[in-house]
Amino acid sequence: MGKKLKNSGLVGLGVVAGIAVSLQFSAMAQRPADPALPLDELRQLADVFGLIKSDYVEPVEDKKLLAEAISGMVASLDPHSAYLDKKAYAELREGSQGKFVGLGIEIGQSDDGYIRIVSPIEDSPAYRAGIKAGDLITRLDATPVKGLSLDDSVKKMRGEPHTKVSLTILRKDEPEPLVFHITREEILQKSVKAKIVEPGYAWLRVAQFQEPTVDDLATKITELYRQDPQLKGLVLDLRNDPGGVLQGAIGVAAAFLPKDAAIVSTNGQLPDSRQTFYGRPEYYALRSEGDILAKLPAAIKNVPMAVLVNTGSASASEIVAGALQDYKRATIIGSQTFGKGSVQTIRQLTADTAVKLTTARYYTPNGRSIQAKGISPDLHVNENADGDGLNSLRMREADLAKHLSNDREQEAGKSKRDEAEEQLRILAAERKRKPLEYGSGEDFQLRQALNHLKGLPVQTAKQESQLVQVDPPAAKSPMPK
Question: Which residues does the annotation mark as catalytic?
Answer without folding.
Answer: 315, 326, 340
